[in-house]
Design the sequence.
DNA sequence: CGATACGTTGACGGAAATCAACCCCGGTGG
DNA sequence: CCACCGGGGTTGATTTCCGTCAACGTATCG
């Protein structure tokens, strides 16, 4: 099955972190995909599941999360077009967290079988996907720092910087603005804050002239200022193509 | 170069998460290693470095960390014998964090070149090491939850549960007790707390009869109670050998 | 023996949680 | 058509957990 999207979001994403040969791109284009549409706030994969396929985000936003016993939720990552949030299930049988849509999403399911066969035919692609999961891990590390050691305004600013650059890397930024469908409660669950405090912190960032909002769009008004406020160093995103070891 | 240690700590570690064939074990035993000894609190790899080798912990404890601009430190993981804390540098050229010894350590450096050639000859081993980095990521995710959503006593208890099980998986637990060289300040930097609060939290856990300490040993007095206090679910450690997808 | 690192205790302050209203807006059904 | 509803956002009052500061104890070591 082929995709009507041009360019293929997965290829766009992978090319933001590495170089791809034509035959590798061809192989990726011919990966068998099961397209499905999800409404907002639908659980895609449940904690405890044993998936036999992984899920590529074609459009919309998804997130990974865990619940604590007293019903609190921690969001551990947000995912945009071109990413495969549960790629790890290829080598970890049991889901240790949930995956859910945030907005309505177009998702493409890829069976582990076809991934394995892809890697067999293109061993370098298996390194590229490995690299992809390593970047995932690098982002988690940075989130540990963020929730562990930064006060609320810096924490917020840091998250916004990350989301901005990740959108930019796949061409989803125009005029320093990008689609921002995350509610304040969801930000709270991602940052380890209360929704009330998220609200006040956002007001502070707006008042400091760092960001502005128009409807679903988030606009970065002062990139340098925002980076500074969030102590943001983009190294951990490992975005430069050609960055991987020879 | 061969190791005087029996069994090889790397093999013991990998066998705690997967099954290894005899030829795979042989190949691992013949990996060329550069043994070096480090004193306590020595930086092994610096943030920003471009390593051409990765480092296997033979004995002692190491940790990964980042510094924030105002000089605060966040520890992101602890590592014990058999683990390769900077395996990710195989596919991520730039270190986005530091790696340091906690105690005096015996370390074995493995060049990326020999890892690549090992994976070429034993493709399944590359999946095993990939799996290893995925478990790493799963632990980071759990740490995000821990620092983001749990109050200090639960946070502490959760960390102790994790360290206990990881030591147990490689045979480093006797009589519910294991070597515990982490100072209270270091725990503070791992948990996103102050050293003072760590001190008080530890006293609370001792007073509740959950743990006891004798010198460098930490003893789990009430495993069920500690698990409950930390909302601990070991799924995320993915320890069962045979757990990986066929 | 003093130096130093680690652990412990008390007093105080502050960042963020909680609780509780209230507003705004889009959807929907009587 | 308008009333009602519910989700998201906003605000103020109050509480609490945890940080900071500062002092002191204790053990190890050169």
Sequence:
């Amino acid at each position: 099955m082929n995709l009507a999207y041009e360019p293929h979001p997965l290829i766009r994403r992978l090319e933001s972190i590495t170089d791809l040969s034509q035959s590798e791109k061809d192989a990726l284009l011919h990966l068998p995909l099961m397209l499905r549409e999800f409404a907002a706030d639908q659980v895609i994969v449940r904690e405890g599941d044993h998936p036999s396929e992984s899920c590529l985000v074609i459009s919309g936003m998804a997130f990974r999360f865990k619940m604590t016993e007293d019903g609190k939720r921690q969001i551990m990552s947000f995912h945009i077009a071109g990413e495969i949030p549960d790629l790890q299930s290829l080598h970890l049988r049991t889901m240790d967290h949930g995956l859910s849509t945030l907005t309505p999403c177009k998702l493409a399911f890829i069976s582990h079988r076809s991934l394995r066969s892809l890697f067999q035919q293109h061993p370098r692609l298996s390194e590229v996907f490995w690299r992809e999961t390593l970047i995932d891990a690098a982002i988690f590390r940075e989130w540990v720092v963020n929730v562990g050691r930064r006060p609320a305004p810096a924490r917020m600013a840091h998250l916004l910087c990350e989301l901005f650059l990740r959108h930019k890397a796949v061409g989803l930024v125009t005029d320093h603005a990008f689609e921002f469908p995350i509610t304040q409660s969801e930000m709270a669950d991602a940052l380890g804050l209360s929704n009330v405090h998220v609200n006040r912190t956002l007001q502070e960032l707006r008042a400091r002239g760092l960001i502005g909002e128009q409807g679903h769009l988030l606009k970065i008004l002062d990139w340098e200022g925002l980076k500074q406020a969030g102590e943001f160093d983009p190294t951990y995103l490992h975005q430069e193509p050609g960055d991987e070891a020879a």
Observations:
- Residues 183-185, 195-196, 199-200, 203 of chain B lie near DNA strand C (CB under 10 Å from a C1').
- The radius of gyration of chain B is 18 Å.
- Chain B has a mean pLDDT of 94.
